[in-house]
Automatic annotation (TrEMBL):
InterPro entries attached to this UniProt entry: DUF7869
Domain of life: Eukaryota
Pfam families in the cross-refs: DUF7869
Protein name listed in UniProt: DUF7869 domain-containing protein
PANTHER family on file: INTEGRASE CATALYTIC DOMAIN-CONTAINING PROTEIN (PTHR34415:SF1)
Ranges of residues in domain DUF7869: 8-187
Natural source organism: Batillaria attramentaria
């Protein structure tokens, strides 16, 4: 198993320290549309819609990963939420250099400890492990983004193309660690490198007309599912290691057209190998 690639599941956590509760989004590879800001914003949006407490002011703490968290699209999203009246104020804070652990890592540590002691064959097993990692306190909460058959539970929206026509980019966004948006100054981003500095501000909405022209929500990005080669790999290489009850869920036989395409690829490769040898 060490040299094989089992079915993958990504985890994205959102922890509310005041409760405390952490929602762990479990992303099966068949429904993993993106690993960047599009996915992060989609999961945050789902969190506010389904796990929010009706809060109007948000204090958000993130790590400094630029591809997922520290970028223009996340800032635009929170400006959009404030202008839409979903929040009155949002403070976005990024951890100082050298400080790489915060509340989600605490919950991930509890989850990792439970994962090492248990047998996980499928997503339902992983959900159970997440729940049992904090059995008494119920801090860790599992949330499936989709099922093994490709059924989507948490949709991924095209936030980048949706927000881009109405917003300007913030120059040098990676240089700053504290951002604030408020309904008293809609569309204005307040920012600074450290709490000891004075805030600066910049209008990021291009125009009121451009913002009003935005649809209510961005379009949903469909999940591509597993490729033919990946389905065949799971069936041929991983299936024997999965418990018998879950084999048809985790590593099912590829659909007829998928299997034929895979066999055709192998046949073509074999033909060219034979041709090279003959000539």
């Amino acid at each position: 198993m060490y040299f094989l690639t089992p079915r993958k599941c990504a985890i994205f956590g959102v922890c509310c320290e005041g409760l405390p509760k952490q929602v762990n989004f479990l992303v099966d590879e068949s429904v993993n549309v993106s690993k960047g800001s599009i996915a992060v914003i989609s999961y945050l949006h789902y969190y506010f819609e389904h796990f929010g407490m009706g809060e109007k002011r948000v204090q958000l703490h993130c790590d400094n990963c630029s591809g997922q968290n520290k970028n223009n699209f996340l800032i635009w999203y929170f400006i959009w939420r404030v202008v839409k009246g979903l929040h009155t104020e949002v403070n976005i804070n990024f951890m100082p250099a050298g400080h790489t652990k915060f509340a989600p890592d605490w919950c991930f540590g509890l989850l990792k400890r439970a994962f090492r002691r248990d047998e996980v064959n499928c997503l339902q097993d992983l959900c159970r492990v997440v729940e049992e990692s904090t059995a008494e306190s119920r801090i860790n909460i599992p949330q499936l983004v989709g099922h093994e058959d490709g059924t989507v539970v948490v949709p991924t929206f095209d936030w980048q193309n949706f927000l881009s026509p109405a917003f300007r980019r913030m120059p040098g966004v990676l240089q700053y660690s504290h951002f604030r948006v408020t309904r008293e100054r809609p569309g204005v981003l307040f920012y600074r490198s450290s709490l000891a500095e004075d805030e600066q501000s910049r209008m990021l909405i291009k125009s009121a007309a451009a913002f009003d022209a935005l649809p209510d929500m961005p379009p949903v990005l469909p999940a591509a599912g597993l490729s033919y080669e990946r389905q065949a790999y799971l069936y041929n290489q991983i299936r024997e290691f999965v418990c018998e009850e879950q084999r048809d869920v985790v590593c099912p036989l590829p659909e007829i057209n998928c299997a034929l395409c895979y066999l055709c690829v192998l046949a073509v490769k074999s033909f060219f190998k034979v041709t090279v040898v003959l000539f």
